[in-house]
Design goal:
- The chain has 149 residues and is mostly helical.
- The chain is built from 4 helices and no strands.
């Protein structure tokens, strides 16, 4: 029974390897065809006049730059989307901080010792954000007070 199991596993592995080899051969054939096409295009470009060679080179560079620009646009869009998300989160946290401070000013003095523990929890949540913050000039004293406490 163990021998049969090992034989079956060996046959499965052999079949998988043969399939992998076949897929790699197909991929290699496709790459070989692409290489031949590129070599033919290169040889044809060499037979062209210098002006046409320059134009051909410029066309290839334009294509490369266009593709690069599209990739950069995608990256920019991703960053802009992330920026919007972070700004929304910042507004939510600023509102929570303001609500928390407003509740602290209305609470009696004997309940304020818990204030530090709550602020630490808020600070831990905000720890994920790094970088520049945007704020209104009239909020500056409030931000400075929060930094000090």
């Amino acid at each position: 029974p163990v021998l049969r199991l090992l034989e079956a596993q060996l046959q499965d592995q052999r079949r998988e390897h043969e399939e992998e080899i076949e897929a790699l051969k197909n991929q290699m054939d496709l790459m070989q065809e692409e290489l031949e096409k590129q070599q033919q295009a290169f040889l044809q470009a060499l037979q062209l006049s210098p002006e046409v060679q320059v134009e051909f080179g410029l066309q290839q560079e334009i294509t490369r730059l266009t593709n690069e620009n599209l990739d950069l646009k995608e990256v920019l869009e991703k960053f802009e989307k992330n920026e919007k998300k972070l700004k929304k989160q910042l507004k939510i946290y600023m509102k929570k901080v303001q609500d928390f401070e407003a509740s602290q000013t209305t609470l009696p003095v004997e309940t304020r010792p818990h204030e530090r523990n709550m602020q630490v929890a808020v600070q831990r949540k905000e720890k994920d954000f790094q970088g520049m913050l945007e704020y209104y000039k009239e909020d500056e004293p409030l931000l400075i007070q929060n930094l000090i406490t």
